[in-house]
Structures are given as C-alpha cells and as structure tokens.
Design goal:
Blueprint: E1 2-7, H1 20-32, E2 37-42, H2 50-66, E3 70-74, E4 89-93, H3 96-99, H4 103-110, E5 116-119, H5 122-128, E6 132-133, H6 140-143, E7 159-164, H7 175-187, E8 191-196, H8 205-211, E9 214-217, H9 226-233, E10 238-241, H10 246-250, E11 256-259, H11 264-276, H12 290-293, H13 295-315
Parallel strand pairs: 1-2, 1-3, 3-4, 4-5, 5-6, 7-8, 7-9, 9-10, 10-11
Helix pairs in contact: 1-13, 7-11
C-alpha cells in the first residue's frame, strides 16, 4: 500500500527540531508496517496561506502520478490541499488545529469529507464529537532510565535541574510562567538550573530527561504533549498545567501532577511536594503507560486504520 503524508508539521533544514513526532510516526510506520510505502509532502507552515490553495491544485496530480492508495493529512489546515484528491484521506488533528481560530473553523468544516478522523487526545474527540483517539507514540525503550542515572532525589531546599521542554521563544509554550515558577522555587531556598530542549539533537534528548530533576509544562495550548510521554518513560517527575491530555497521563503514574490554574505559587508548591515524596526514580512506576505510548504499537494501529479503509472501499 502506498501512502502519502501531507503535513505542515515536519522538521526542515531551517527548523530541524520542529514537530519531530510526525517524522517519527512516519519512520515507525516504515519500520513496523513493512507492507506500507510511506512518502511525505511538506507544506511549510511559514509560507503564506495561499500556498495551501496552490497545493490544492497540485496535489491531485501528485497523488495520481505516485499511484497512492491513501493520503494522510497531519494538522487540519492541510486538509485544504486535499479537497480535489480522489484517494481516501485520513486526517490527524493535533490540538491547536481544532481548538484555536481561525484553523479550527477550517478543520471542523473539512473533517466530514475524510475517510477517517484521528485525534491525539480524548479531549479533542469530545470537542469534535467524533474521531479515533491515537496519540503520537514515542520509542519507550530509548527513554528508559539507565541504572547509571538512578540517584536519590535532591534534598529540598537544594540544587534543582528543571526542564523547560521546548523553545522559550515560542509564546504558546508559556515560558514566562516557567520563569515565575522558577522564581518561586528559588524564594523557597532552591538553586535552580534551567534546562531547555530546543537545539538538542534528537538522539541526546533522553539524556536531558535522565539528568533533570523535574519537568514543568507551562504551555497555553497542547494536543497530546509528547514531552509528557517522554518524561513518563524516563521516570522524570513532572508538574503540568491542564492542557491536552496531560491529566489523563498523570492519572496513570505516581510522579505527575496537573494543576488546574496558572498560579506560579501553586505550581511551585505542588512541585516541592512532588519532589519531597520522590525518593529513587527507579522505584517510580510507569508500567500502566508504556504500552499505550509505545511507538511500535501505535504504528500498527494506524496501519490497521489504513487497511480497514481500503477494505471498506473494496466492498462498496
């Protein structure tokens, strides 16, 4: 089966660390579903909106020439480019494409035209009223905490290495709140060292989690934040604001807390309490999560979706 992925969420030479979760999903489909031939067509999100309309005219010829059986659109806005495509279209909604204007209007308008809808979190399914919940997976074994990184938790107050799991310049990631929480932690006698994920080579990302003491997720909006899954796989304690499906994942572990408001004092207090009850990271339990977030199992689920659609079309 030949599948063309169309997306504006993909690493580029100019932005090599952007939206690696889509690239990893494509690579996992190639690895774990050998009957699939996966190609990718990227519409760079930084281009003018007219690029989506031009792609709407180009894409039918690309699909026909490539003899693709299926088109998989990642992010709602890319559905515009699939309007004249005759092959079945699967869409994965990632969060802001359903929750933020003006993209959410395009997504809701075009979603019924697709053969299958995937959403990365239950909250998105409830908002849209339809869709199969399939989060983007992670390579769980790569993030598993090695014994050499297992150490007693820092005594508080003390030195803390705190992870901000994104790029501080992206306003949607809420870096100003992170800074306010850091100040609250320092006022409680802690010496805080900030750690950022932006600019870190993908192969070295697990080490960042292993070497940190705490992760703070302060985003204004998320769909199914990959960093929560990575923290869980690495057994890194985390405190998050209530975005995406963070609460669903936090319920499954004893080292994650989701705070209902964005008060830095409240978040700092929760972080201190969480670290105080965390002794050895190796003793933390993530067993209820690993299978659900495993990239191999998720790839096979998506592969089944593709095959079901082709079988349904064959029987019509």
């Amino acid at each position: 089966m030949r599948v063309l992925v169309v997306t504006n969420l993909y690493p580029t030479p100019a932005r090599p660390f952007m939206s690696t979760f889509v690239k990893e999903q494509v690579e996992s489909l190639r690895q774990y579903c050998p009957d699939l031939v996966m190609d990718v067509r990227v519409i760079e999100g930084s281009r003018p909106r007219g690029e989506y309309l031009r792609e709407m005219l180009r894409l039918p010829f690309v699909v026909k020439k490539g003899r693709y059986d299926m088109v998989h659109a990642h992010f709602g806005l890319t559905l515009v480019s699939t309007l004249f495509v005759r092959a079945p279209v699967v869409v994965t909604f990632h969060g802001s494409d359903l929750m933020m204007s003006p993209t959410k209007h395009v997504s809701k308008l075009l979603a019924p035209r697709t053969a299958r809808i995937i959403v990365v979190a239950q909250r998105l399914r409830e908002y849209l009223g339809r869709g199969e919940v399939i989060p983007c997976g992670i390579p769980v074994q790569e993030f598993a905490l090695p014994s050499c990184h297992d150490k007693p938790s820092s005594k508080l107050p003390g030195n803390l290495k705190v992870l901000f799991p994104s790029d501080p310049t992206r306003k949607v990631k809420g870096y100003s709140l992170f800074q306010a929480i850091r100040q609250e932690l320092e006022e409680r006698g802690n010496k805080v060292e900030e750690v950022h994920l932006n600019g870190v080579e993908r192969a070295k990302v697990p080490e960042v989690y292993w070497e940190s003491d705490l992760m703070l997720l302060t985003s204004l909006s998320e769909g199914s934040p990959t960093v929560i899954k990575e923290a869980i796989a690495a057994k890194l304690p985390f405190v998050s604001v209530d975005v995406g499906d963070a609460k669903e994942w936090a319920r499954l572990v004893n080292f994650g807390v989701v705070v209902q408001d964005r008060d830095p004092r409240t978040i700092a207090e929760e972080a201190v309490a969480l670290l105080a009850r965390t002794k050895h990271r190796s003793a933390l339990d993530n067993s209820q999560c690993l299978e659900r977030m495993d990239i191999a199992k998720i790839a096979r689920r998506i592969g089944r979706v593709y095959r079901e659609i082709l079988e349904e079309n064959r029987l019509r």
